[in-house]
From TrEMBL:
Signal peptide: none
Pfam families, sorted: Transferase
UniProt keyword Transferase, yes or no: yes
Superkingdom, taxonomy of origin: Eukaryota
Lineage: Eukaryota, Viridiplantae, Streptophyta, Embryophyta, Tracheophyta
Name the UniProt record assigns to this protein: Omega-hydroxypalmitate O-feruloyl transferase
Gene Ontology MF terms: acyltransferase activity, transferring groups other than amino-acyl groups
Amino acid sequence: MGSLSEVTPLIHDLKVTIHRSSSIFPSCQTNRRSMFLSNIDQVLTFDVDTIHYFAANPDFPPEAVAQKLEDALGRLLVPYDFLAGRLKFNPQEERLEIDCNAAGVGFVAASSELSLEEIGDLVFPNPALRQLIERKYESLGMEEKPLIHFQVTSFKCGGFALAMANNHITFDGLSAKMFLQNLASLAHGNPLSITPYNNRRLLAARSPPRVTFSHPELVKLELPPTGEGVQPATVFDTGVDDLNFKLFRLTANDIARMRDKAKIEGASGPAITGFNVVTAHVWRCKVLATTNSPADPDKLSRVLYAIDLRSRLQPPLPQSYTGNAILTTYGSAKYSELEEGPFGRLVEVVREGATRMTEEYARSVIDWGQLYKGFPRGDVVISSWWKLGFGDVEYPWGRPIYSCPVMIRSSEIIVLVPDMKKGMGGNGVNVCVGLPSKNMEEFERLFYEFLASM
């Protein structure tokens, strides 16, 4: 049965020393231009920090890896010219765009006095892991801050970490993986493995905008025009600092039992996916753990998660589309259903979010964003890194032993990350939750109580 992460006491100081910090520029001249950003891009302006850990490879010491990455990045910034640009606000259009001005990306080489083994469980959301990502750019204004920067940190065991911090406006999960595949290919000395498609006008609003559905998952904002240094609100806004983070591991056997339970309780075959059953389970636990009792049984709760649009539009988007080809969909259920209803019904509700995302619904959401400049909001946001496949990227020095995000400090977001413990049956998932301590105790109780009933 699922278990809490078996962690040694957290290391609070990784004893990181920065040896050099530089900027990387496109290896040849690129044309200066302004890059259109879709209404989906416009609300995803927060940074995403990802760390890829590598075991020691005697043929590729960390210093050689850093040099190969710098060389490859310089060449990669030609087809990905927008990454070397800067965000700017267009007052005439009242929207953000990227000034492709070749201002460069950041690169840092560093070392830690610890070994990977001393850090402990790489999956656990240890705040100290933020030391593996250079923070100096956080104080810069929007028009000065690089859209992406990297840090290579070597450990005393010979292993190292490659950290990538990028503004989400640059990539969604799939296009970030494509970028890393191209980075690995150039580091091998090969050509691009995938030619990026950078025209984001494919996801522009219609003229005039036509909102043809109600969108209860979206919140309208009454904001002044966004100016320099001002970022629009996003679904990931948070002011919660006193969070207790825990990691709940679900094995492949746990997930199989959850799928069986959903089938017994009426869910249809197409609905019974690993993602749907895990989402239904954690949605129920989180809402019930944080609801003041007694709750209104008829009150609606919403769970949000991202849907890839590439194959859902007509014609389909290019699979190599860079940027954010995702929209947030939702499932909704009454509090009474979450507390007492059949698990199979909740799994069906989660599935309804995906089936709702047709071509017309997606265009309606994009047009809604043109009119209202709003963003998604729900009781629970599921951010799934489970099947992105960052760990499958083959670099000259091998595949990562683990790839994961640095946790976002928000009580609304539950992050699903892959399982690195193959001995647990493989294909499991880690559920990372951040809640105030009193709510976490209740979440943990419900998590295992419901799981035991599967």
